[in-house]
Amino acid sequence: MWNDRKSWWAKKAEDNKADKTHYKNWCVIKVAVSYRHDINSWNPVLVYQYKAVAKANAPKIKTADGRLMQQKEVDNLTKHEAHCVAKGLNFLDGETK
């Protein structure tokens, strides 16, 4: 009978596996996806797109001082909010040009 109970670490592992997308640990980053040639110049123009990623997976860039900094456009979002913001920014970025 006492073997039917789960140990505390087994219960803790199940709790940690729960979907935690409601936490505000997502952000939106700006990514260069391709380039196109501008008619008025010889230089290619980068085409950017906004992507929703988890904060832990956000790319890190180095500043001039040598410090690491994460490249974020919008921060502290839930997963759903991040996808909606990225979709809206991609739509509005095309409208403003």
Structure notes:
The chain has 97 residues and is α+β, with helices and mostly antiparallel strands. It has one domain (23-96). 28% of the residues lie in helices and 34% in strands. The chain is built from two helices and five strands. It has helices at residues 8-16, 79-96, and strands at 26-37, 44-54, 60-62, 68-70, 74-77. The strands form two sheets. Strands 2-1-5 form a three-stranded antiparallel β-sheet. A two-stranded antiparallel ribbon has the order 3-4. A hairpin with a 6-residue loop joins strand 1 and strand 2.
Layout of strands and helices, then pairs:
Layout: H1 8-16, E1 26-37, E2 44-54, E3 60-62, E4 68-70, E5 74-77, H2 79-96
Antiparallel strand pairs: 1-2, 1-5, 3-4
Q: What would the keywords be for this entry?
A:
two-stranded antiparallel sheet; elongated; three-stranded antiparallel sheet; 97 residues; 2 helices; 5 strands; alpha+beta
Say how many strands there are: 5
Tally the structural domains.
1
Radius of gyration: 21 Å
Measured by DSSP, the beta-strand proportion falls in 25-35%
**Strand order within the widest beta sheet:** 2-1-5
Largest sheet properties: 3 strands, antiparallel
User: H/E element string?
Assistant: HEEEEEH
Secondary-structure-derived class: alpha+beta
Percent helix range? 25-40%
Mean pLDDT: 79
Distance between the termini: 70 Å
Helix tally equals 2
Q: Flag low-confidence runs.
A: none
- Overall 3D shape: elongated
